[in-house]
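Lab notebook, bench 4. Still working through the backlog of constructs that have no structural model yet. Next entry is a single chain of 360 residues. Request: give me the structure tokens for it.
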Amino acid sequence: MDARFRLVARAMAAAAVMFLVGATAASAHTPVAGAVREYAQGTALQYKWGAAYPSWFTGAMGSAFGIDWTNSTYSNSRVPTFSYSASGAGTVWYKSTTGIPQCDGSNWIGCSNGWGSSSWQVFLRDFTQPPFPSGFTGTWVQTTGSCSNTCFDLRRVALHEIEHVTLGVGGHDAQGEVNTIMASATPSSPTTGWATHHIQKCDQAAAQLLYDLAALAGIYADCFDHVTGHGVSGLVSTATATAPVASACYGTAPSVSGRLEVQANTNYGTLGGNPLASRTVYLDRKLHSSSTWTLDYATTTASNANTGTNWSRSFTENGTSGSVTYDYRAHCRGETGVDPAYSGVVSLTWRYPCPLNPGP
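Model written out:
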């Protein structure tokens, strides 16, 4: 297996999210830095509570590990999913710093360990239990429904730790809150991103490169424009077109077929060679003797076939004498995260009389 996609178990790896919020300028626009695939694609992970906790905490965690992590508007990848079970191997804790040596003294709000193992742990800070940094007063918005002093969102902090468990990201990422939730400093109210309840586009990009898409017909992340081998604004796509016959009788319907896919590029990880399923394939046409194309003359839809052709479109012409030849080319218009592409030109000729090859 390619070393970039090996499963990495870090039984005692830890990541601290600091109280102190530091502004960091975006230095790039790339899939979140340092990401690795910690589990097999689509792994189902279970968690239990570390003790009996209030409903405001368990409810927030259920949302973070459930609808927030898997929100299809922001997350279309085969990253591990989570579900609660009283016998789950993973553990979600709500507690003080006492007895958690892998967290950073008193100066943390959430941390995690066991990345890549079934017995991972996520810790959320109990603000009612000292010690605290000098002069610090922190609250969770979930406890009161409103903010006072220094206020944080449990779901946002839990999502950060979930991404540590599934994607590593040991060094954090300073691209800014609109790109990733993996900064080393947690934003507090009313700082941008403090109550984000979904992963961001560069988090999704890393997850897609490492774990592939959950739905081939779904979205690609808008964070591939600086990946090695990128196109103008996203991943390079390719379109091909072929014709099984070059000549046919008037009234028959030969087809043009081909493949629409993400370029088979090793820099694209699991995405390279993916069929661009459910995307519209546009076919332009012109007379072979002309230089003027009729744009979008016909359309068809690409399938999810992993290999071979994944689109086909038939054409017919009628006549009673002579011949006519048309040229065709296929293209896709591109989308967020994927660049447009054009195929080469193929020609079809219709003739009369028939059969074309009557034999001796």
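Notes after review: The first strand starts at residue 15 and ends at 17. The chain has a mean pLDDT of 89. Flag for follow-up if needed.
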